[in-house]
Amino acid sequence: MSRLECCEFYHSCHPGSVASLLKRTLSFQKSIDGKIDVKLVGTDCQIGRYIALSHLWGSAQHCTLTFKNLLEYQSSISWNILPKTFQDAIIFCTMLEVHYIWIEALCIIQDDPTDWEIESAKVADVYQQSYLTLAATGSSDDRGGCFPAIDLAVSKSTEYELTTPFKSPRIIARKKVEHWTRPLSKASAYTHPVAGCFRSECYRRESYILAEKN
């Protein structure tokens, strides 16, 4: 049994296999030839399973939902305009046979203050009710992807053989994979930009800052 299955069936913190879907999610299907068709759908009041993406926006937003492209994205979102972090997240969803994902940049109309105010207030519920939350902790913006290159020095295993009077057991060891430290160090903030952004409180959205000023 995988860790995800263990969490789903035995942990009380998990919402289960289905939950109430959101006002908007991205829906996608993978065809036999490997092509993934993506579009924005209204799923309010429906029941289903979705994954949420947590990522760092960076200094510039490369793909967002606006009044101008709302109708276009409801018909289809070109795969080529999606930044790598979004593409990786969607591919990950298809591997788990989940066909909905919530990405703030594409599920909230970014130039509509009313829509942003209403939907951003639900973000805590979005993550709590998701089947799984995928965090792109190693990327400083939406182009970095969800799966940074593996450090070969960390992933390489070393095998040792111990000699005893009765048998020669073998031990395999490798360097510990480090996540960010608590409290967060400068080194952890550098290797995990999302954590570093929380530390400096720069994860607040521009529209939220503007709302505060008004």
Q: How would you describe what is shown here?
A:
It contains ten helices and nine strands. It is of the alpha/beta class. The strands form three sheets. Strands 3-2-6-5-7 form a five-stranded mixed beta sheet, sandwiched between helices. The chain has a two-stranded antiparallel sheet with strand order 1-4. Strand 2 (24-30) and strand 3 (36-42) form a beta hairpin. The longest helix is centred in the middle third of the chain and has 12 residues, at 84-95. The chain is elongated and about 75 Å long.
Short synopsis of the structure:
The chain is α/β, with parallel strands linked by helices and 214 residues long. The chain is built from 10 helices and 9 strands.
Key descriptive features of the protein:
elongated, two-stranded antiparallel ribbon, 214 residues, 5-stranded mixed sheet, alpha/beta, disordered C terminus
List the helices and strands and how they pair.
Layout (H helix, E strand, L loop, with lengths): L2 H8 L8 E2 L3 E7 L5 E7 L4 E2 L2 E4 L15 H6 L8 H12 L4 E3 L1 H4 L5 H8 L2 H7 L2 E4 L16 H4 L1 E5 L8 E5 L11 H6 L1 H8 L5 H8 L1
Parallel strand pairs: 5-6, 5-7
Antiparallel strand pairs: 1-4, 2-3, 2-6, 8-9
Number of strands: 9
How much helical structure, as a percent, in the residues?
25-40%
The pLDDT mean sits at 78
Distance between the termini: 52 Å
Q: What is the general shape?
A: elongated
- Largest sheet geometry: 5 strands, mixed
The low-confidence runs, each spanning 5 or more residues with pLDDT under 50, are 198-214
